[in-house]
Design goal:
Family: Belongs to the UPF0114 family.
Keywords: Cell membrane, Membrane, Transmembrane, Transmembrane helix
Main location: membrane
Distance between the termini: 42 Å
Order of helices and strands: HHHHHH
Shape: extended
InterPro entries: UPF0114, UPF0114_bac
Strand content: under 5%
Number of strands: 0
Radius of gyration: 22 Å
Largest sheet: none
Number of helices: 6
Protein name: UPF0114 protein EP867_03105
Helix content: over 70%
């Protein structure tokens, strides 16, 4: 006795299958990861020959740039893997020993916190780089006091957003566990 699926069941199947529309976006994130790698390698080849004539301050700015690029790449990897596993499909990776420990354990709330923490770190590095450039004529021509003020305000907004997200997640978890 085979019963034909109802309109509701068919609709739900279409909705469930629509998660695969996200797959090309995750492939796009792989491309952005390659773009960051190209920028990293380009900058590395640009700065390595200058290392013996570079001032300490300039060296620190270069290192901060590389850290900034690496944090952005880490953010892409976290969103790529966690987002795919949370919203599309579990990754069927054969070599479990090479699988990062956080994979498969980061839920949407954890992903949200990792994203905001990465954004705060990237913003902090950009702000630190700007503070270190104060007094350099080229940097001062590009960034005035107004831009520095707004960079600070934006950074503090990211920090406050992260704190508020953490507090909301804490309240949600507390309410969830108080039911039991």
């Amino acid at each position: 006795m085979s019963e034909k699926p109802t309109v509701e069941v068919r609709f739900e199947r279409v909705l469930f299958a629509s998660r695969w529309l996200m797959a090309p976006m995750y492939l796009g994130l792989v491309v952005t990861l390659m773009m960051l790698l190209a920028i990293f390698v380009r900058d590395l080849f640009y700065y390595v020959p200058q290392v013996m004539t570079m001032s300490a301050d300039r060296g620190i700015l270069v290192v901060l740039t590389f850290i900034d690029l690496t944090l952005a790449a880490n953010l892409i990897v976290i969103v790529l893997f966690s987002g795919y596993e949370n919203f599309v499909s579990k990754l069927d990776i054969q070599d479990a020993k090479d699988r990062p420990g956080w994979m498969g354990t980061v839920d949407f709330s954890g992903l949200k916190m990792k994203v905001i923490a990465s954004i705060v770190a990237i913003s902090a590095i950009s702000l630190l780089k700007r503070f270190m450039e104060i007094g350099e004529s080229a940097a001062d021509a590009k960034y005035g006091e107004t831009e520095l003020f707004w960079m600070t305000v934006i950074h503090l907004t990211f920090v406050l957003s992260g704190v508020l997200l953490a507090v909301m997640d804490w309240f949600t978890a507390k309410a969830k566990y108080s039911k039991y």
